[in-house]
Amino acid sequence: QGVFTAEDNSAAALGLEQKIKYSRLAIKMFHTSVLSPREMFLPAIGEFATKVLSGVDVYRTLYFVNVLKIDMVYVTVILSLIGIYDMLNNPLMGAVYDKTRTRWGKARPYIIFGAIPYFVSTFLLYSGALFLGNTSGDDPKKILFVFTMLFIQETFSTIYNIPRGNLLSLQTANPQDRISVGLLQTYIGEAASQTVYTIFPPLMELNNKGFINLPMSVVFAAVSAISCSVGAVGNIAMAIGCKERIALQPKPAPITKTMFYVLKNKYALRNFVTRFL
Predict the structure, then answer these.
(1) Is it the case that residue 68 has pLDDT exceeding 70?
(2) Which of 58, 93, 103, 180 has its Cα between 20 and 30 A from that of 199?
């Protein structure tokens, strides 16, 4: 009846008695809080590191142009190509994630094995100015370095972020659990990003005025080192320490159904076109 309604689901092969049994279990889980304090706190640690890096990303273009000294034309081309790649790889990873079923869970393997390449590539990206030197703005080594790091970062960001964003829905069906974790993530995440916005502009201004002599290359490297370390440890700890309790979920709708939904729905189509542009 709905465009996103799948034809069948993972419980379709169960007998009537089993369906009744699992239905009662699902209703009980909906009304029972199951998350431990650790399972509520660990996702917030992962969110802290993610939001710190989001705050740093606000100054990413400044880093490329003023710190790495890359010509703005090359920066624009690189970011455009990575943006198009991001638009293409998200639905592909979504489709792969939907079909994933492993003995270790649906989301946890991607978080464990995807977080480290993502955070390592992010750290290397923001540390590049320390070892690439003060060469010309069209230096092929710098341009290739930035493109490669952004490509790796974007690839593994998609691989681990989509499952990470859905982990809570696999942990608990209880609304209070989900609200509590969501609030913790929101407050801690906002505190992290606002801390970056509070620190960066004064540091840049003090450097410009000559009151301190702290190269921005060192600032970017230090902030990325701290946030990437916390992010890698926090996200892996979250994947290991948070249980996936929801085993039976509806089978996702076919990709073609989603595509036709976007094409037929003017609001979804408008959002898609806007993001593409």
Answers:
(1) yes
(2) 180
